[in-house]
Amino acid sequence: ARDEEVSIFHQLEAAGQPWAIYGDGLTFEEEIFPKLKSEKGNRFRTIAEYVQAANAGALPAFAWVTSAGNHNEHPPNSVQAGEAFVAEMIEAT
Prior knowledge:
The chain is of the alpha/beta class. Helix content is 43%, strand content 11%. The protein has five helices and three strands; from the N terminus they run αβααβαβα. The chain has helices spanning 8-14, 28-32, 34-39, 47-55, 79-91; strands spanning 19-22, 44-45, 62-65. A three-stranded parallel sheet has the order 2-1-3, with helices on both faces. 12% of the residues are buried.
């Protein structure tokens, strides 16, 4: 079993640092840290919320942007699709 209390997200929370995970669809973080999602669901936000916060200069100190589905770079997915997603996020802000 994973010790969820040592995740970077729990460490940020313990240090009083603002953080959020931005992604659409079921993210990897939700899958591996289901307790985190149930405890801190308000910290899981959409890509549209990321773009809005970034453009407003209102991102938290730690903003984790993740892709779901075909845009991640984990095998067997396309690295090019993942890089295109990253470029899209940079260009959107």
